[in-house]
């Protein structure tokens, strides 16, 4: 189980997609989180009770922008949200891991280190980019103001902490071709490791 992590805007989804195209199963905590907060899901009801009806749209769906402003402005509020979501996300990740029959699997957990979930994986792969790249990518992708982007980055562990925990690193400030080359290299490496473990 390869835990893929990195800061916001680092290119985690792009890297995971490339691993998926090579045949690796991909379990994505963000995808699971979105499913958990879909309309009529118990987690969404608990979020609404905790943070108020203002975090819901008129259609009863989660207003992500409203919730983000609340939780990244106050670490206590962020902890309340994490207490609702993280146990549910972890349980679902574990359920998905239990179904994996492939040589290796990519488990995308943006807050892998922040939430202490390293025990779910065998290796940690960090996607790393400079701060300026993070900011420009997120600003372009999500149309967020710089202050909100920095608040999200500051809520995550430092790049140094992330890199210190890494077994493998992809430096992803280049283009998609460079990312694909590095993913291919790691794909071969992970297959070799998996084959070695199965033979031992």
Summarize the topology.
Elements: E1 2-6, H1 12-21, E2 26-28, H2 29-36, H3 42-51, H4 64-71, H5 75-99, E3 106-108, E4 123-128, H6 131-142, H7 146-155, H8 159-165, E5 168-171, H9 176-199
Mean pLDDT: 94
- What is the chain-wise order of helices and strands? EHEHHHHEEHHHEH
Straight-line distance between termini = 17 Å
Proportion of residues in extended strands: 5-15%
- Main β-sheet: number of strands, strand sense, barrel status? 5 strands, parallel
Helix content: 55-70%
Which structural class do the helices and strands define?
Answer: alpha/beta
**pLDDT < 50 runs, ≥5 residues:** none
* Total strand segments: 5
- Based on Cα principal axes, name the global outline: globular
Radius of gyration: 17 Å
Strand order of the main beta sheet, please? 2-3-1-4-5
Specify the number of helices: 9
Task: Explain the overall architecture.
The protein has 200 residues and is of the alpha/beta class. It has 9 helices and 5 strands; from the N terminus they run βαβααααββαααβα. The protein has a 5-stranded parallel β-sheet with strand order 2-3-1-4-5, sandwiched between helices. α2 packs across α5 and α3 packs antiparallel against α5. The model has no long low-confidence stretch (mean pLDDT 94).
Short structural summary:
The protein has 200 residues and is α/β, with parallel strands linked by helices. 57% of the residues lie in helices and 10% in strands. It has nine helices and five strands, in the order E-H-E-H-H-H-H-E-E-H-H-H-E-H.
């Amino acid at each position: 189980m390869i835990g893929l992590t990195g800061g916001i805007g680092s290119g985690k989804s792009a890297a995971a997609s490339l691993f998926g195209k090579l045949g690796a199963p991909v379990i994505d905590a963000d995808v699971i989180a979105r499913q958990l907060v879909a309309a009529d899901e118990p987690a969404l009801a608990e979020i609404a009770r905790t943070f108020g009806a203002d975090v819901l749209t008129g259609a009863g769906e989660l207003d992500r922008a409203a919730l983000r402003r609340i939780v990244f402005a106050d670490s206590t509020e962020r902890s309340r949200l994490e207490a609702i979501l993280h146990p549910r996300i972890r349980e679902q990740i574990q359920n998905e891991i239990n179904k994996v029959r492939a040589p290796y699997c990519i488990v995308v957990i943006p807050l892998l280190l922040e939430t202490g979930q390293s025990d779910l994986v065998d290796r940690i792969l960090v996607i790393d980019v400079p701060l300026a790249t993070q900011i420009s990518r997120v600003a372009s992708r999500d149309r967020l103001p710089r202050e909100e982007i920095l608040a999200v980055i500051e809520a995550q562990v430092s790049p140094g902490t992330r890199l210190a925990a890494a077994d493998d690193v992809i430096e992803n400030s280049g283009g998609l071709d460079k990312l694909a080359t590095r993913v291919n290299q790691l794909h071969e490496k992970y297959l070799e490791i998996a084959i070695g473990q199965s033979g031992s």
